[in-house]
Design a protein that fits this description.
By secondary structure, the protein is an all-alpha fold. It is built from 5 helices and no strands.
Length: 140
């Protein structure tokens, strides 16, 4: 039976990925995009594509889940982060498709943009921005 202080493997993985100060996981995400590009153009093995895409989705789902759904439980953060990742990939892919044809190179560009957006959202989410409106009382 688990105690209150015990963390699940998903909690530990999320903490490891989210609290990266030197952008190692972001660089790893870019490396996964590069491997996806190589697989689409040279290797063309489905097993390689599935494995590399799994790690790409894992990293970026954790980034987006932490940025957008910080108050939820870890499994929900991961699930909603994955859904947000798919939505962002679809939106950016659609924009690229409208501008020009979506091929292997532009698909890689879409994945790079998504990696950048999810990493920036993860870093910015640590800082809270509050805007307070102060209303002056009229002196009448």
């Amino acid at each position: 039976m688990r105690g209150i202080s015990d963390k699940t493997p998903l909690d530990k993985l999320e903490e490891l990925i989210v609290h990266d100060k030197r952008f190692i996981w972001t660089a790893f995400s870019y490396f996964m995009v590069f491997l996806i590009f190589l697989n689409m153009n040279i290797v063309r093995l489905p097993a390689v594509g599935v494995a590399v895409s799994f790690f790409f989705f894992l990293i970026n789902s954790v980034f987006l889940g932490n940025a957008l759904f910080d108050e939820k439980k870890p499994f929900l953060r991961f699930s909603f982060g994955g859904l947000a990742l798919i939505a962002i990939i679809c939106i950016i892919g659609w924009i690229v498709l409208i501008i020009y044809n979506l091929d292997a190179t532009r698909s890689t560009l879409v994945l790079c943009i998504v990696s950048t957006v999810s990493s920036i959202m993860n870093k910015v989410s640590r800082y809270t921005f509050s805007i307070e409106f102060v209303r002056e009382a009229s002196k009448t």
